[in-house]
Amino acid sequence: MRLQNDLALYHSACQSGDLEKVKYYVEKKKHVIESDGIGNSGASGLHWASTCNRLAVVKYLVKNGVDVNLGSDNTDVGTALQWATRYGYIYVMFFLIQNGANTNSCDKDGNTLLHEAVKSGNVMAVLYVLFTLVDLHRLELNAKNKYGETALSLAAYQGDEWSVYSILRFGADITQQDLQGYTSLHNGVLSGNRRVVKYLLTYGADLTKTTKDMKTVSDIAKESRNLDIFIKPCKSCAWITKGKPLGYRFNRFWRNAITFSIPFALCGFLILNSGLIPTFFAVLPVIFLTPLLIKVVKLFVLQSYTPPETDHSSILETPMMVGVFLVNMGTFIVLWLVHLQEVFFNNEYYLNFVFPVLSTLLLLCYGRLIFSDPGCIPEETDTDLIRNDIEKLIKLGSFNCHTFCLKTWIRKPVRCSLSKLNQQQVARFDHYCAWIYNDVGLKNHKLYIFFLILLETFLMTFGVLNWRYFGLMEKTAECFLFNRTIICHGYKNLKVVFLFLVWTIFQAIFVGNLLMLQLRKIAYGITTFELVFLKEFVRNRSLETKICNDYFDVREAAKCDESASADISTCPKKYLITPRIHCTDPEATNRLLVVAEFLGFDEWRFPGEKEIQKRKETIGYIPSWYTATSYGKCTNIKDFWLSSQTNAPTLLRIFQLPNNSKALLNGEVVDYFRLYNMPQAS
Question: What percent of the chain has pLDDT over 90?
Answer without folding.
Answer: 47
